[in-house]
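Supplementary Methods, section 5.1.

A reviewer requested that the exact input to the structure prediction be made available. We therefore reproduce it here, unchanged from the version used in the analyses.
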Amino acid sequence: MTIWDNIYKEYKNSGKKWASLFDDVHPWFKEFLNQSNFKVKCALDIGCGTGKYLKLLKEGGFKTDGIDSSETAVEFTKKALGKDSNILCVDMFDYDIPKDKYDLVVSIATIHHGDKKQVQRLINKIHKALIKKGKIFISVPDLESGKKWHTFKDNKEIGNGTYVPLCGPEKGLPHSFYTKEEAQKLFSKFNNLEIRLDDKGRWMVVGEK
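The structure derived from this sequence is encoded cell-by-cell as follows.
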C-alpha cells in the first residue's frame, strides 16, 4: 500500500481531505483547453486521483487513460469515467508510457513525488509519449513557496531541492521543488513553453512537442 493510497482510503472512509484533494479542476486548465486544438484527442493523466481532469476531458470528446499509485484512487477514477477508459494502478516512474500516442498529457500535484533524477526521466518519457504538436499541462511546486508549507516544517533534505517530510500523511515521501529556472531546464525539450506561478505556489507548465 502506498502513502497516497492511505490518504485516499482515509478520504473514502471519512471524507477527510489532504493536499490536492481540496482542489477542483484548475481554472487555467479550462482556459488552456479552450485555447488549444487537439488532433487525435487522446489524453493521459499521471496521478489521476479522483478522475476530475479525465472526466472533464472525456466530456470534451477525449479518449482517456490514467495512472495512479493508489488502488483507491484508481477505483474513484474508474467510477467517474466508466468502463471505456484505461486506468491503471502503477508506479509512474516505472511505468512504460506508450510512445507517440497522446496529444495531451496532464499531471497536477504529482510528478514531484520523487528525486529530481526520477522526475527528469519521467518528463523525458512524457515527451516521447506525445505525438507531434502534442501538449502538456503539468505542475511542479515552487522552491520558495514550498518553504512555507506547514507540512514541511519538520523535514530532511535528501538532495538539492528535494525534501522528505518527517511527519504528517506524506511522511517519508520525497518531494522535489523547483525554481523557475530549474523548471525551464526540466521541460527544455518542449516548444512554446509557458511557466506561470499560481496562487498555491505551483509552477503551471504548458508546452508542446
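The CA atoms of residues 11 and 207 lie 33 Å apart. These observations are discussed further in the main text.
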